[in-house]
Structures are given as structure tokens and as C-alpha cells.
Amino acid sequence: MNSKWEKFRHHFKQQEVPAKTTLLREGQVSRTMFFIEKGCLRTWVNNDGKEITTQFFFEGDSVSSIESFRTNRPSLYSIESLEPCILQTISQRDFHDTIENSPELRRELEEHLFSRLLDSQLLFYSYLKNSPQERYRELIMQYPHIVQRVPQHYIASYLGITSVSLSRIRNRR
Fold first, then answer.
1. What is the CATH code of the structural domain delimited by 3-119?
2. For residue range 37-90, what is the model confidence (pLDDT) as tens digits?
3. Is 69 helix (H, G, I), strand (E, B) or coil?
4. How far apart are the first and last CA of the chain?
5. What's the confidence (pLDDT) of residue 163?
6. Residue 74 pairs with which residues in a beta bridge?
């Protein structure tokens, strides 16, 4: 957890979850923010019964359906653990109180939101401009450890391709 949050540690609760635990379902209002101490989470959407992975998160990342968390609207996606995780959680109310009482953390939240927006835009434009092979290369550069930690079918889903296509791309490297 970021050292700036240390003075607010009393608001956090540690949560240990096994792999394949759904922390938030698409359509629910997000009431919790998760800080990953250990493990990996993914976000995904349901497209007519097919799961499409939208992002991966690892140690040091914070995760919530921030749009839902801040507006009380239903989440556009689900959050699920891919590995056994140790998480630090903060409730929506405690988070809002903390942000209101710390201009420094408010600025950090703004930077975090800007970073998430930038990541989303880069991914969106990558889908428009790059081949699946180029998107895979970008993913490996960003998360070199991902192939050891994330099942291939989730990586393929994230890239918008089948597992068979991903195998072909990996074999070409």
C-alpha cells in the first residue's frame, strides 16, 4: 500500500481470497476499493455469455469499478481474483472521508484516474491500429511476468483473439 495511505490504515481491512473469487459483479454498485498486496485480479465484461477480459492488476495496484464507486451507478464490469490474493480493502464511505480530509490523497486519486484513462485510451487505440501480435508484444513489455501468472485463455480474451491464435503468436516469437 502506498505510504501516503499509512496514516489512514485504520480504515483498511485485510481480506484474503482464493483464486476465482468474484469481488464485484457487473451490474452491482461498487462499495469497496481493493489494494493488492499479493496476487492478481482481472476485470471482465459479459458479452452474451462470453467473458471478455478488459484489464489485469498485480501487486501494488488499486482496483475498483471507480466509475461505480464514485457515482453509485451499476458497475460496467466484474472484478475477479486469478490467484489467491491478499488485499487491503477500504469502504466507499471511509474512502470518501479520507479523500475529503487529505488534499494530497485527492491529488493522488486524480493522477490515478488520469493514468487509468490513459491506459484505457492506449488499449482502445491499440485495438484499432495494431495486430494481435503487436498487442501481445505490448502486453509482455508492460507485464513480463504475465505468461507465468495468468491462464492463456484470459490473455487471449484480453487481446481479442482465440487461445489457438495466441498459441500461434507465442510460437512465432
1. 2.60.120.10
2. 999 999 999 999 999 999 999 998 889 998 899 899 999 999 999 999 999 999
3. helix
4. 36
5. 93
6. 29
For the stretch 78-133, pLDDT in tens is 999 999 999 999 999 988 888 888 888 788 878 877 887 888 898 889 889 999 99
Amino acid at 87: L
Cell 459479459, residue located: 46
Domain ranges of the chain: 3-119, 130-173
Task: Evaluate the CA torsion angle 73, 121, 41, 77 in order and state its sign.
Answer: positive
Instruction: Answer whether 39's CB lies under 8 Å from 56's CB.
Output: no
Torsion over CA of 101, 105, 111 and 114, rounded to 10 degrees? -50
Q: Mapping DSSP to helix (H, G, I), strand (E, B) and coil, where does residue 56 land?
A: strand
In this prediction, residue 6 has a pLDDT band, given cuts at 50, 70 and 90, of: low
At 121, give phi and psi (nearest 5°).
Answer: -65, -45
The DSSP call for residue 76 is: S
Q: What residue has cell string 469499478?
A: 65
The C-alpha atoms of residue 68 and residue 115 are separated, in whole angstroms, by 17
Integer Cα distance of 87 and 15 in angstroms? 5
